[in-house]
Structures are given as structure tokens and as C-alpha cells.
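tool=predict chain=A
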Amino acid sequence: YDKCTHCMICVEKCPTKVIEGDLSIKDKAV
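tool=predict ok
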């Protein structure tokens, strides 16, 4: 997964941690 639309999925599935959404900022910051 190069890009993730969901924060939860991004953190667990995406190795690059590329998120696009409202919670992306919170999840990416952690």
C-alpha cells in the first residue's frame, strides 16, 4: 500500500505511513 485513505489501515498496513484524511494529522504525529 503506497497510499492510505484511512489512518488505522495506514498505520497497520502502510509501511510508508502516507495518509490523507482528517485523522491523518493525529495518527502521523504519533
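Residues 1-30 form one domain. The chain has one domain: 1-30.
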